[in-house]
Design goal:
It is a single chain. This protein is an alpha+beta fold. The chain contains 6 helices and 5 strands, in the order H-E-H-E-H-E-H-E-E-H-H. The strands form 2 sheets. A 3-stranded antiparallel β-sheet has the order 3-5-4, with helices on both faces. A two-stranded parallel ribbon has the order 1-2. Strand 1, helix 2 and strand 2 form a beta-alpha-beta unit. Helix 3 packs antiparallel against helix 5.
Amino acid sequence: IKENNFTLETIKLYRKIFPKNKIILSTWESENIKEFENLNYKNLIIIKSKLPKEAGYLNINYQIKSTKTAIEKSKEFSEIEYLIKSRTDCRVYDPNSLSHLLNLIKNFPVTENDFLNFRILANSSSTCKYRVYGLTDIFQFGEKNDLFNYWDVPYYEKVLLDKQYNINEDP
């Protein structure tokens, strides 16, 4: 989150273009994030978690842990209905993006689905057809309970062991 101060500058930008929205930064206990804490923004929430014991294939366990922790934190705020989940090396620039994303969800509702209330929107960059949890983690938008249900999964090795896959081989 420190390379070229990208994440720090992203938070400053989001404060300008999304002034009323909460920003949740989910990171690791091992990170020195003093400059983020010094921002002293009212709507900035910083969560520091312990790293999972195993990173998992392509760091999937890190993605699961940090995302699920942030979504769980969002549940403490009843005013939060929808979430943008993005990696710290990515950023949204359009101040109108939230209204565009909400319009997409509302104009293209899910039908006959017991799992989702609304759609989960994601970009196509790095979405892999043959990878477990192949929907990219670079950017996602959705209703907070839908995103929680998507990310409320066991760590990668647990899934593979339950399915009796060999976790020492590339999928």
